[in-house]
TrEMBL record:
InterPro entries: 6-hairpin_glycosidase_sf, 6hp_glycosidase-like_sf, Alpha_rhamnosid, Bac_rhamnosid6H, Bac_rhamnosid_C, Bac_rhamnosid_N, Galactose-bd-like_sf, Ig-like_fold. Residues 349-520 form the Bacterial alpha-L-rhamnosidase N-terminal domain. Residues 977-1052 form the Alpha-L-rhamnosidase C-terminal domain. Keywords: Glycosidase, Hydrolase, Signal. This is alpha-L-rhamnosidase. One of its GO terms (molecular function) is alpha-L-rhamnosidase activity. Residues 1-21 form the signal peptide. Residues 635-974 form the Alpha-L-rhamnosidase six-hairpin glycosidase domain. It catalyses: Hydrolysis of terminal non-reducing alpha-L-rhamnose residues in alpha-L-rhamnosides. Pfam families: Bac_rhamnosid (PF05592), Bac_rhamnosid6H (PF17389), Bac_rhamnosid_C (PF17390), Bac_rhamnosid_N (PF08531), Ig_Rha78A_N (PF25788).
C-alpha cells in the first residue's frame, strides 16, 4: 500500500474507532498552548499543551480521564490526513490534561504546528478527536533576524522647566533677606490677570515651584500644589480661567529645616503663567514685583473679591538660576510626534503564508495595504528594553497578495521615550522610538522571501499624531492625515529615508501574553454644562482607557478632553489628583463632516471628561469610554444577598481591569509605575476573576531579567523609576506570586523558572540584613497607608517595621524551601528550612510577649503577619487570635486598621482562625476605614488611602485596588467556599467549604479552573442550608457541608452518605465532610443554625 494512503487510512480508522465501541462519557474542548488559544510566534521550544474535558451527559458523576493521545502535524490538512506528523504520543495512560510538554520532532523558526487530542474515560472508552488547535514558532535564534533597527532620533519639542520659567523671578514677602533666611511659615501672594475678550483660550499652563511648597488658587478654586522647590510643577489651569479679570492666589510655605538654622533657611516662590490662544501671541504672567504679598492668613484671601490693596509689593530675590536655588528641574512636558514608516514590495508569486514579526518601541500599529491588521493596542508588552524586548507575530496570509503590497507602521512613544525625566523622581528613558520588522512570505511553490526593516524604508514625523504621552495626553491634528499612506502607490517623495539606529540592547523574545484590547465600551450616564463652552461627561464608572470623540465642525477647531476622577462643587473637573500629569487629549478637526477619533498610544484612568472647544453643543452620543487592559479571560463570577458586598466586589474587579496593562501598574496621575508591593498576594484574587497565568509569568520574567548581581531586586520593575532601595517586603512578589500561582494552576514551571532568582534574593537578605538572632530590621515602606495615616485618627499606632521585614523574611525562606522540595533540590530544601527555623525562633524571642500573647506594636497587622505565615506556635495560637479579634471588634469597633501589605493576608487569616464572622463584620462596615465607606462616597473602585475623600488628593485616589487586598479571593474561598488544595494543585482536587455568616441568605460563586467550571450556590431558607455544587470532570473534591447534625444531611433527597458518588468522611465541628468526584450535587442541611464562629 502507498505510504500516504496507509497513513490516511490509519488515521481514519483511529478516528472512527470510538463509534465501534461504547460511547465515551467525555469530550475534549478548549485546547491551549502555553495557556493561550492558537498562539502565534512563540519561542518555547517544548511548549506545554492543555485541554479540558466536559461531560457528554450533564447528569453524569465521577468522570475522569484515564489516557490521552496527542497528534501534531505541520498543517491542518496533514493533521486530518495523518501526514507530516511531528508528534504522536500514542495512547498514554495518564489523567494529566494540563501542561503536557511537546516531545516530538525538533521545532524550528516559523514552524506551524496543528494539533488534536483525544482521551479515554475511566471505563476505557475513547472520545472523538478534538477540533484542531494551532501554534506557530517564532524566531528562535538571533541569527534568524535579518532586519535592521530603523527610526529617527530627534524631533522632540520638550518644554523644559527652565524654558517655561524664563523671565520669572524668585519672590517673597518683603522682610529681611529671603534668599538667605526667612521665618518659618506661610506667606500669601496674589496677582490680577486680565485676559482679552474674544480670544478663545487653547491652553493655560502655570509653571511654578516654591521653597518649600505651594498651593495655587484660580478665581477662588484650587488649581494645584507642589511639594518640593527642586521639582517644578506644570499645572493646567485652562478650565479655571476665563476672558476678562482673573485672580491668581498662591500660598507658599517655608518649612522648618532639620539641617540649618532659620537665619540660613531661604524662602522663595517662582512661577510663570502662559496662556495660549487659538491665534496670536500668548500672554505671559511671571512672578515679579507686581505681585502682592501678605504675611497673615485671612479668611477668604484666595477669593476674587478679596481686597489686597493694603498688601505689600512682593520682593524680588533674583531671576531664574540665581542663588541659592540655581536652575531648578522638574517635569518636562515631553512632546514627540509619532513616527510613520512605510515600505512597498512585490510578491511575485501566489502567496501561501505570510507572517510578520514586529518589535516597535515604545508602541506600534501595523498596517498592510491600507488596513490596520489587528485590534491589539499598545504592543509590545512593557519590559525593561535594555534587558528584554518583545516582538509580536501576525498572520498576514489573507492581507498580503500576489503583486504590489505596502507595509506601514506607526510608532508611539510608550515607555521607551519616557513621559517624564525627573518628576517626581528620575525616570528611565531608553531613547527614541524604533522598529524591527521581518515579514516572511512563503509562496505556493515552496520558495520564501523576506521583507525586512532596513534603510529602504521611508519615514515621516509630519503625520497627525503630534504627541503621545501617557501622562499628558495625545495630540492629534486630523488636517495632517495622509489618506492611503499604507497602500501601494502612495506618493512618499517628501518623506525622508529611515535611519539605521542602535538596537535597544535587550534580548528579543516572543510576546507570550494576551494583548491589550478594548474590552468594553461605556456610554455616558450624564452630560452637564457647568460654564459656557465647558461640558462635563460622566461615565458613571472609573476605568482605564481612552475617550472616543464624535464631532463635526470647522477645520482647525481644537477639542480638548481633560480626564480625571473627581468634580469640584461647581461641577468642573477636579484635577488635583493628577499632580503634574496633564491628562489632556487634543483633537484638531479637518472639517470634512462627521469625524470620529480616539487615542492610539496612551490611556489613563478616568471617570469624568471635561470637554472644551467643542463646536456647538454635544450630547451623550458624542462620547464613548473605551475600557482598555490586557485581554484576560474572565474566569469568575460572584454575587450574594448583600448589595454592599456585591458593589465592593465589583469595585475590586474594576481595579484589576484598571491596573493590568501587560504589567500591574498604577493607572493615573504622574506616577503610573509597576510597583511590586501591590500585586503580591492580591494577585491571587485576580486569579479567581481572570486567567492571569501568562500575565504574571511575564511580570516575573521582568524581575529575573533585572535582578542585580548581588541578588537584590528593585521595588519597581521594569525600572521606569530608577531607584533601588533593596527592600525585602515589596519585592516579595517574586516568592509570593510563584507560590500561589503553582497552587492555582498546578504549573511547576513557574517555580522552576523563578527558582534561581528567589534563591539568590533570599540569600542576599541573609547576607546583607540578617541579625545574629535571625531577624531583619530593614523594611522601607512598612504597612503602607494603614489606619494611622487617617487624618484625625485616634489610634496612631504603627506596625513595627522590623516585625514586618522579619516575618516576610521567614515566609520567603519557607517558600524557597517548599519550591526546592517540589523541584527535587533536597540540599537547598534543608538549607532554607534551617534558615526559616532560625528566623522563626528569633522572631518570637524578639517580638512576642508570652505573658500577654501579644506581638510588638499590638496592632492588627502585628498579629496578622505571624498568623498568616505560621510563626505562631500552636500552643499560643488561640490566645493570639483572641488578641487580634479584640483589636478589631473592641478597640476598632469592628473595623480594620491594616494597610496595603496587611490587607493581603487579613481576611484569610480570620477565616483560617475560625472567625469568618469577624471578617464579614469588617467587610460590611460603612464608616471609615472600610470599603463600604468608599462606596458610600461614590467610589467605583478602591482608594489608595482609607481617607482619600478628605485627605491627600494627590494620592492615587479612586483608581486603585491596593486596599482591596485579597478580598476577592476571600469572597470566593470563604463565602463561596471554592478553594484549591496545595497538595493537589491547580484545582485537580477542590476543597469546597463555605462559611455562611452574618446576614447572608444566599451566595453564588463560580470559578472556571483549567479543568472546568466549579460552581457553588447556597441559600438559607426556613432554617435549612441548601447548597448546589458542581465539580468538573477529571477532578475530585472534599465537600464541607455546614451542619450541626451530619446524619441529617441529604444529597438529592437521600441521606448524603448513600447518594451516588458521595462518600461520608467524617464530622467536624460545624461541618459534615464528604468526598465526591465530578458532577453536580444538591446538599441540604436541615434545621441548620449559623454559629457565631467556627
Amino acid at each position: 500500500m502507498h505510504r500516504r494512503l496507509a497513513l490516511a487510512v490509519g488515521f481514519v480508522l483511529a478516528t472512527a474507532a470510538p463509534s465501534l465501541a461504547a460511547p465515551a462519557s467525555l469530550r475534549v474542548e478548549d485546547l491551549r498552548c502555553e495557556y493561550l488559544i492558537d498562539p502565534l510566534g512563540i519561542d518555547a521550544r517544548a511548549p506545554r499543551l492543555s485541554w479540558r474535558s466536559t461531560a457528554v451527559k450533564d447528569a453524569a458523576r465521577g468522570l475522569s480521564q484515564s489516557a490521552y493521545q496527542i497528534r501534531v502535524a505541520r498543517s491542518q490538512a496533514a493533521l486530518s490526513e495523518g501526514e507530516d506528523t511531528l508528534w504522536d504520543t500514542g495512547k498514554t495512560a495518564s489523567d494529566q490534561s494540563l501542561h503536557v510538554s511537546y516531545a516530538g520532532k525538533p521545532l524550528g523558526s516559523h514552524d506551524a504546528c496543528w494539533w488534536s487530542v483525544r482521551i479515554w474515560d475511566r471505563d476505557g472508552n475513547a472520545s472523538d478527536w478534538s477540533k484542531p488547535g494551532r501554534w506557530t514558532m517564532g524566531l528562535l535564534d538571533p541569527k534568524d533576524w535579518t532586519g535592521k533597527w530603523i527610526g529617527h532620533d530627534g524631533g522632540d519639542t520638550t518644554e523644559s522647566p527652565t524654558a517655561m520659567l524664563e523671565g520669572a523671578s524668585w519672590i517673597w514677602y518683603p522682610a529681611g533677606n529671603p534668599s538667605i533666611g526667612a521665618p518659618i511659615g506661610g506667606r500669601f501672594f496674589r496677582k490680577k490677570v486680565n485676559l482679552p475678550e474674544g480670544r478663545r483660550i487653547v491652553k493655560a499652563t502655570l509653571t511654578m515651584t516654591a521653597d518649600d511648597s505651594f498651593g495655587v488658587f484660580v478665581n477662588g478654586k484650587l488649581g494645584g500644589q507642589g511639594a518640593s522647590w527642586a521639582s517644578v510643577k506644570a499645572l493646567d489651569l485652562t478650565p479655571l480661567l476665563r476672558p476678562g479679570a482673573n485672580t491668581l492666589a498662591v500660598t507658599a510655605v517655608n518649612a522648618e529645616s532639620t539641617t540649618v538654622t532659620p537665619d540660613k533657611n531661604p524662602a522663595g516662590l517662582i512661577g510663570l503663567l502662559k496662556v495660549e490662544f487659538e491665534s496670536g501671541e500668548p500672554l505671559l504672567a511671571p512672578t515679579d514685583a507686581s505681585w502682592r504679598a501678605g504675611d497673615e492668613h485671612i479668611i477668604g484671601w484666595e477669593r476674587e473679591d478679596f481686597d489686597d490693596s493694603k498688601w505689600a509689593a512682593a520682593r524680588e530675590s533674583g531671576k531664574l538660576g540665581s542663588a541659592p536655588w540655581g536652575m531648578v528641574g522638574g517635569s518636562e512636558h515631553r512632546r514627540l510626534p509619532a513616527r510613520m514608516l512605510r515600505r512597498e514590495f512585490d510578491a511575485s508569486k501566489q502567496v501561501r503564508r505570510a507572517t510578520a514579526s514586529v518589535c516597535g518601541l515604545g508602541f506600534f500599529d501595523l498596517h498592510v495595504n491600507g488596513r490596520l491588521v489587528s485590534d491589539q493596542l499598545m504592543n509590545p508588552a512593557l519590559t525593561g528594553y535594555d534587558r528584554r524586548a518583545c516582538y509580536v507575530t501576525f498572520d498576514l496570509s489573507d492581507q498580503v497578495k500576489q503583486g504590489r503590497n505596502a507595509l506601514g507602521v506607526v510608532l508611539g512613544n510608550g515607555r521607551y521615550f519616557a513621559p517624564r525625566v525627573n518628576d517626581p523622581v528620575p525616570m528611565h528613558s531608553y531613547g527614541y522610538p524604533k522598529l524591527l520588522l521581518q515579514l516572511r512570505v512563503e509562496y505556493a511553490d515552496g520558495s520564501v522571501e523576506n521583507v525586512v526593516s532596513d534603510e529602504n524604508w521611508k519615514l515621516t514625523t509630519d503625520g497627525p499624531i503630534r504627541s503621545d504621552n501617557e501622562f499628558d495626553g495625545e495630540e492629534y491634528d486630523a488636517r495632517r492625515e495622509m489618506p492611503g499612506w499604507s497602500s501601494p502607490g502612495f506618493d512618499d517623495s517628501k518623506w525622508r529615508k529611515a535611519d539605521l539606529v542602535a538596537a535597544p540592547g535587550g534580548t528579543l523574545e516572543a510576546q507570550m501574553i494576551e494583548p491589550i484590547r478594548i474590552t468594553e465600551v461605556l456610554k455616558p450616564v450624564a452630560l452637564t454644562n457647568p460654564k459656557p463652552g465647558v461640558f462635563l461627561v460622566d461615565f458613571g464608572q472609573a476605568f482605564y482607557g481612552m475617550v472616543c470623540l464624535k464631532v463635526a465642525g470647522p477645520a482647525g477647531r481644537s477639542v480638548r478632553l481633560h480626564t480625571s476622577f473627581n468634580v469640584t462643587p461647581d461641577g468642573l473637573l477636579n484635577a488635583a489628583n493628577d499632580r503634574s500629569a496633564y491628562n489632556t487629549d487634543v483633537y484638531t478637526l479637518k472639517g470634512e463632516g462627521d469625524e470620529t477619533w480616539s487615542p492610539r498610544f496612551k490611556g489613563n484612568a478616568t471617570r469624568f471628561v471635561q470637554v472644551e472647544g467643542y463646536p456647538g453643543t454635544p450630547d451623550a452620543s458624542n462620547f464613548e469610554g473605551l475600557v482598555t487592559h490586557t485581554d484576560m479571560e474572565p474566569t469568575g463570577r460572584f454575587a450574594c444577598s448583600n448589595p454592599l458586598i456585591n458593589r465592593i466586589y465589583l469595585n475590586a474587579r474594576w481595579g484589576t481591569r484598571m491596573q493590568n496593562r501587560s504589567v500591574p501598574m498604577e493607572p493615573d496621575r504622574d506616577e503610573r509605575m509597576p510597583w511590586s508591593g501591590h500585586p503580591a498576594k492580591t494577585s491571587e484574587s485576580e486569579g479567581y476573576a481572570f486567567n492571569v497565568a501568562r500575565f504574571y509569568d511575564h511580570f516575573l520574567h521582568n524581575y529575573r531579567a533585572h535582578q542585580a548581581e548581588d541578588g537584590s531586586l528593585q521595588e519597581i520593575l521594569p525600572p521606569y523609576w530608577t531607584f533601588n532601595s533593596k527592600d525585602i517586603v515589596w519585592p516579595s512578589v517574586v516568592t509570593v506570586i510563584p507560590d500561589w500561582h503553582y497552587n492555582f494552576y498546578g504549573d511547576l514551571k513557574i517555580l522552576a523558572d523563578n527558582y534561581d532568582c528567589i534563591r539568590r534574593w533570599v540569600l542576599f537578605h541573609e547576607k546583607a540584613y540578617q541579625k545574629p538572632d535571625g531577624t531583619i530590621d530593614y523594611c522601607n515602606y512598612g504597612d503602607w497607608v494603614d489606619g494611622s495615616w487617617i487624618k484625625g485618627a485616634v489610634d496612631k499606632r504603627v506596625t513595627s517595621r522590623p516585625l514586618i521585614s522579619s516575618a516576610y523574611y521567614y515566609n520567603n525562606c519557607r517558600i524557597v524551601a517548599r519550591a526546592a522540595r517540589l523541584l527535587g533540590k533536597a540540599d537547598d530544601a534543608r538549607r532554607f528550612d534551617a534558615m526559616a527555623e532560625k528566623a522563626k525562633a528569633g522572631f518570637n524571642a524578639r517580638f512576642f510577649n508570652p505573658k500577654s500573647n501579644k506581638y510588638e506594636s499590638e496592632t492588627q497587622a502585628s498579629y496578622v503577619f505571624p498568623l498568616a505565615f505560621g510563626l505562631v506556635s500552636e500552643a499560643n495560637r488561640a490566645a493570639v487570635v483572641a488578641n487580634l479579634v479584640d483589636e478589631i471588634m473592641v478597640k476598632n469597633h469592628g473595623h480594620t486598621s491594616v494597610g496595603l501589605v496587611g490587607m493581603q493576608w487579613f481576611m484569610q487569616v480570620l477565616t483560617n482562625a475560625g472567625r469568618a464572622d469577624v471578617a464579614y463584620t469588617v467587610a460590611t462596615q460603612t464608616t471609615r476605614p472600610s470599603w463600604g465607606y468608599m462606596v458610600s462616597k461614590g467610589a467605583t473602585t478602591s482608594w489608595e488611602r482609607w481617607d482619600t475623600d478628605t485627605q491627600d488628593g494627590g494620592m492615587n485616589g479612586e483608581s486603585q485596588k491596593i486596599l482591596s487586598g485579597n478580598l476577592e479571593a476571600w469572597l470566593y474561598q470563604t463565602l463561596g467556599g471554592i478553594n484549591y488544595d496545595p497538595e493537589r494543585p491547580g484545582f485537580k482536587h477542590i476543597i469546597l467549604r463555605p462559611w455562611p455568616v452574618g446576614d447572608l441568605t444566599f451566595v453564588r460563586a463560580e470559578h472556571t479552573s483549567r479543568y472546568g467550571r466549579i460552581d457553588s450556590e447556597w441559600k438559607l431558607a426556613d432554617g435549612a442550608f441548601a447548597w448546589t455544587v458542581t465539580v468538573p470532570p477529571n477532578t475530585t473534591a472534599t465537600v464541607y457541608v455546614p451542619s450541626t447534625d451530619a446524619a441529617a444531611v441529604t444529597e438529592g433527597g437521600k441521606p448524603a452518605g448513600q447518594a451516588e458518588g458521595v462518600k461520608f468522611e467524617r464530622a467536624e465541628p460545624g461541618f459534615a465532610v464528604y468526598s465526591v468526584g465530578s458532577g453536580t450535587y444538591a446538599f441540604r442541611s436541615p434545621a441548620w443554625k449559623p454559629a457565631a464562629s467556627r
